[in-house]
Amino acid sequence: MQRMRMTAWIAFAIAVCIYGAMTVWTLPAISQAAGGLMPFDMRPGGYSRGEAQAFLAALSPQGRAIYLGPQQRLDLVYPAALALTLGIALYLLAPFNRFWKGLLAMIPVLGMVFDYLENAAVRAMLLVGPSGLQPGQVETASLLTTAKVIFDSAGYGLVLVFLILWALRRWRRVSAPQA
Prior knowledge:
The protein is 84% helix and 0% strand. It contains 5 helices and no strands. The chain has helices at 2-33, 49-58, 61-93, 98-132, 135-175. It is elongated. Keywords: Membrane, Transmembrane, Transmembrane helix. The chain crosses the membrane at residues 76-96, 103-129, 149-168.
């Protein structure tokens, strides 16, 4: 159990550092290089073919290089670190048997899978550019983005719920009168 907790904290530290780098460096640089338009990864509700074309048309060559380079390299490690953090947290915090704990821990793993698939789809769109986009290509990438957000949000939400339940149980134990 101690090793699992340590792994979760290390994965958490890695995820926070990478997320920090993306939010203060790569994603703002990409957005600025696209005239203020949000990168695909930051559109939780997805995007249309027209929105994808507009973003790709506005994106400068330097912005494309940042997206295909540092952003995608950071996004190789981030989904795994996040899934490991949330998965272990769910496993440790959920007040259920091992089967249900394991099942809950799979939610962030699905978020990770959709994130990696999204990264590949975004890379393909960046490589073909605005004129080469196919309608199905954008629809698939957009669905993958939305699926990633749904599973990651579910993981965050469940961890929050189980943390609150854990804190309430602990508070009740501490404040219970000693007999």
